Amino acid sequence: MVKIATFLVVAAIAACTLFDSTTAHEDHTRRALSTDERRLFVQSAQAALTTCTKTTVSRQLQERAVVRRAEAVAKLRQEIHQRRLNSHLSTLTVTTGTNSSVLFASTTTYIVEPEVTEGPYYIKGEYIRTDMREKQTGVPMYIDVQVIDVNTCKPVTNMYVDLWHTNATGVYSGVVASTNGNSNDASNLQNTFLRGVTPTDSEGVAQMTSIFPGHYAGRTTHMHFVGNYGGTVLANKTYSGGSVAHVGQFFFEQDLITSVEKVSPYSTNTQAVTLNSADNIYKSASTNGFDPVFNYALLGSTVDQGVFVWISIAVDMTAKQSPRAVSTYTGTGSDANSTTTGTSDNAAPRVTGLSASALLLLVAFAPVLLGIL
């Protein structure tokens, strides 16, 4: 029911280019760090984070995080209980069963990880909101992400955390492509579900309500994350401009994924399942002891009643990342990346995936590109 684990801290560095030749969804990627680069980064970052753990500010931050997350779970469980009472289903008996200081890991171990790919379906300028479900059905998921500056050991305030993931059957909104659900469904270009941006508060915390992600062929279940700052909130409540300090992906414990996949509509997903252990991006992110996996607690007696997930990450606010977006959402239209082909930008507020011709060209020139890299 509960994954008892320490808070994870994922430290960010400047992004390089990674090319994942095995996964169509990961066309837009960056070079993986070499073993020596990873070792040097880890040594440097761990030294900085070790200093952080000894500070009074860090200890107080951890203590407040324990209380905040415990209170959030208690509130959500109470709401579930009340809904069942209102619908005359009063048999629910839920208790935490575990002391909150243990459940929410008051003793923090800082684990660092270099950045990983943003994936091919990153779209800039999404809506600023705290609930990105829209009408998508699935297991309710309540997300708590805490961001800490590795250089100062202090919470990162007013960072606009951009999160996105697939729906229960493994489809991203806003993209039409042969590797993303029904490639004939042009209406998906209009969709914004399961994408959202929310700012961190004075504790460096960003919270979002969503559903548990589904899977698609070639990738394990995951969530994308980009940390923005210094941008502008537009009148239509979308985010524009600014700089990016962190790009990464979050993962889920395999047992939790397996449990969710048994629940409808996840169980209707016929795409091939990829386990964490077989996922290239997961293996890249978790090399040398890295563990970018959400801690979690179930909110009821069964997984379909919801899950609360949390993670703490440390970012280098001096870093400047350059994630590549396929388009920019404006609320009424999009400005497509020039390398993307398909439906006209004027016809819909989103951009389609690569055409077959473009894919063939990529295949033809792959040896040349790899030789250059």
TrEMBL record:
Keyword Signal annotated: yes
Polar residues composition-biased segments: 326-346
Superkingdom of source: Eukaryota
CDD domains recorded: intradiol_dioxygenase_like (cd03457)
InterPro entries: Intradiol_dOase_C (IPR000627), Intradiol_dOase_core (IPR015889)
Sequence segments annotated as region (Disordered): 326-347
Signal peptide: 1-24
Alphabetical UniProt keywords: Signal
GO molecular function: ferric iron binding; oxidoreductase activity, acting on single donors with incorporation of molecular oxygen, incorporation of two atoms of oxygen
One Pfam family this sequence matches: Dioxygenase_C
Domain spans labelled Intradiol ring-cleavage dioxygenases: 119-220
Residue ranges of the TM segments: none
Name listed for the protein in its UniProt record: Intradiol ring-cleavage dioxygenases domain-containing protein
Source species of the chain: Phytophthora citrophthora
Higher taxonomy: Eukaryota, Sar, Stramenopiles, Oomycota, Peronosporomycetes
